[in-house]
Amino acid sequence: MFFDINNSSYPFKLADVKKLIIKICQSINFYKNSRISIAFVDNRTIKKLNRSYRKKNKQTTILSFAEKDARADFFKKKERVKYLGEIIISYPALAKQAIVKKSTIKKELGILLTHGLLHLAGYDHQSKRQATRMERLENGIIKKIEKNKYAISKFKKSS
């Protein structure tokens, strides 16, 4: 599993994020030679991307851009998929979401990464049936991660 992570100096260790991603990817059965890009951005940037690509002029917490050919190959399992796509997370929105939910940044990051990685694997939530299936998968992966203590253990203190 290969990652390109743009941290933009947000307060967590990239090695910890990578460990979390690996455990989520193992739960989804991603190929070991898959490549995923992850970017942590500010609210203004994610709103601009949401407007440009989804025609929604509002802030969001996460955007996923799956490589179209990779989705088809992922389900056929014929070929080893190289590049699966990109996940973009607004770190300020993530932090706010953790406060609102009375959760932790590490738990919310695990939930968001699981959600984004499922999108890269071809799962969606456009219909009620799809949403139910995706939510069930997300919850199962999160429980497995929490049970086995795969979640990020340490964050740098922010100043």
How confident is the prediction overall: mean pLDDT?
81
User: From the 3D coordinates, which CATH architecture would you assign?
Assistant: 3-Layer(aba) Sandwich
Secondary-structure element string: EHEHEHEHHH
Number of helices: 6
Number of domains: 1
Main sheet overview? 4 strands, mixed
Please give the CATH class: Alpha Beta
Structural class: alpha/beta
Distance between the termini: 32 Å
Quantity of strands, as a count: 4
Radius of gyration: 15 Å
Which spans of ≥5 residues are poorly predicted at pLDDT below 50?
150-159
The CATH topology label is Collagenase (Catalytic Domain)
Strand content: 15-25%
State the fourth-level CATH superfamily. Answer: Metalloproteases ("zincins"), catalytic domain
Strand order of the largest sheet: 1-2-4-3
Helix content: 40-55%
Shape: globular
Please, could you describe this protein's structure?
By secondary structure, the protein is of the alpha/beta class. It has a single domain, classed as 3-Layer(aba) Sandwich (Collagenase (Catalytic Domain)), CATH 3.40.390. It is built from 6 helices and 4 strands. The protein has a 4-stranded mixed β-sheet with strand order 1-2-4-3. The longest helix has 20 residues, at 128-147. It is globular, with a radius of gyration of 15 Å. 29% of the residues are buried.
What topology emerges from the helices and strands here?
Layout (H helix, E strand, L loop, with lengths): L1 E5 L7 H15 L6 E7 L1 H12 L7 E5 L1 H9 L6 E8 H10 L4 H16 L7 H20 L12
Parallel strand pairs: 1-2, 2-4
Antiparallel strand pairs: 3-4
Helix pairs in contact: 1-5, 1-6, 4-5, 5-6
